[in-house]
Amino acid sequence: MVNIDIKEQLTKFFIYITGLPGSGKLSTAIVLSSMINAVIVSGLEYNQASKEARDRIYNTANVMLQAIEAYPIDSKNYIFVDELMKNNDYNIRIYNSIIELSKKMSTKILPIVLRCNPLVLQERTISKKQRKNRKVTNINSIKFRAEDLFVPQNAIEVENSNMSIKEVAEEIVSQMYKFGRINSVYAIGNDFIY
Questions:
Q1: Which InterPro entries match (predicted)?
Q2: CATH of the domain at 33
Q3: How many structural domains comprise the chain?
Q4: Is residue 136 part of a domain?
Q5: Average pLDDT for consecutive 10-residue bins of the chain (194 residues)?
């Protein structure tokens, strides 16, 4: 007889990964998606766009969320990747739209903040792999952006300076198994309401 250790299948999770450029948001999402059978929904760059462009991006994001609701994948696991910045009403509007969709689809939402030492972030952002995605390379700019990063209340913060992408994804999976207490989180201004 063969003993097989079968873990409970993780389903119905919306994972919202945020962090500074170079913190490994997308790389983590790619590894995590294969571990939990999830679809990655990468954030759209609207922080530097005009108001008209941001409104169009927001409307497009809502159409995408409607498609997710209408045609969910079997696991109902989705990973949203974005930078949540303080005082950015578009970040908050899109985040709240994702929260609303999570409620409609009866999923749990787990906000994850990837933290990284500023010197490690600087190294990562000037590496060859990051050249196309480079947003900041100056250590002072990284520190300034870190102060503007919006951290949802009850978010799981993962310090990943000395972790591989796989270790970060495994930590998130571990947190998913522990998670289940919060049904919804809303953002109003810079505050989250549960």
A1: P-loop_NTPase
A2: 3.40.50.300
A3: 1
A4: no
A5: 50 90 89 94 69 85 93 92 79 87 93 88 69 52 62 86 94 84 46 44
Domain annotation covers residue 134:
no
Amino acid of residue 115: R
Domain around 28: 18-118+149-187
Residue 24 Cα to chain centre, angstroms: 10
Within-domain flag for 135:
no
Contacts 24+ apart (CB under 8 A), 27-35: 27/165, 28/114, 28/160, 28/165, 28/168, 28/169, 28/172, 29/79, 29/81, 30/165, 31/165, 31/166, 31/168, 31/169, 32/79, 32/169, 32/172, 32/173, 33/77, 33/79, 35/169, 35/170, 35/173
CA gap 114, 151 in Å, rounded:
10
Q: pTM for this structure?
A: 0.79
